[in-house]
Amino acid sequence: MRLLAIDSSTDTLSVACGDGRTFAVRDERAGPAHAERALPRVREVLAECGWTLGSLDAIAFGAGPGAFTGVRIACGIAQGLALGSGVGVVPVGTLEALAQEAWRAHGATSVVACLDARMREVYVASYRRDGEGWSTGSAPVVVPPDAVTADAASFGAGDGFAIYPALAARLRLTRFDAALRPTARAIGELAAGAVRRGEAVAARDAQPHYVRHRVALTAGERAVGERL
Q1: Which pLDDT score is estimated for 194?
Q2: Domains in the chain: how many in total?
Q3: What percent of the chain has pLDDT over 90?
Q4: Which domain holds residue 44?
Q5: How confident is the model at residue 29 (pLDDT cuts 50, 70, 90)?
């Protein structure tokens, strides 16, 4: 299997190309420059694997939740590359990808994935390892940190635990890693299963998953530095 994966849902740009198990990876702190840096990184990982866009089985992207602009960028790039090469697209949830990272890094099989959503909220979901994938315990939502609930036996993953350091203690989590983030490698690993199950979609049908329905700030909120 030949996969390309892209994630720009956080301030880190992550691009990976591989067969579902082994990947060429490029990760960098891109800040607001995801759009400018993504295509050069795509070319690099394709060259490292010796593949072309047309030889891929699918292109996957981090579909959110996450930074609104970043999620749109990843979706748009995946759609554009897929339209030009005639391959399918696999949207992968960023919180599920975060659970995948927790499994790879720590062997976690029950994960509460939590990312900072700005505006004094977090994106959160829970997952349990199910074969080579994950079953959803609680679907992704955006809530204030005080509204997060989790099984105390879960592993906490994501920067929500860094931005709100009291969260892990309140949930009585004994294990967590606030440095974990969604990566293109994790997205590629999850996309491989989706491709085998026939779940790739046409480029025009690939959509982000924002969770937060309100995706724009008022002029007053922008003036005081609020962020989505």
Answers
A1: 97
A2: 2
A3: 91
A4: 3-93+182-223
A5: very high
Co-location of 83 and 99 in the same domain: no
In a shared domain, residues 120 and 143: yes
SS (H, E, C) the chain: CCEEEEECCCCEEEEEEECCCCEEEEEEECCCCHHHHHHHHHHHHHHHHCCCHHHCCEEEEECCCCCHHHHHHHHHHHHHHHHHHCCEEEEECHHHHHHHHHHHHHCCCEEEEEEECCCCCEEEEEEEEECCEEEEEEEEEEECHHHCCCCCCCEEECCHHHHCCCHHHHHCCCEEECCCCCCHHHHHHHHHHHHHCCCCECHHHCCCCCCCCCCCCCHHHHHCCCCC
Same domain, 35 and 53: yes
Do 186 and 89 share a structural domain? yes
pLDDT grade for 213, boundaries at 50, 70 and 90: low
- The answer on 53 and 14 residing in a single domain is yes
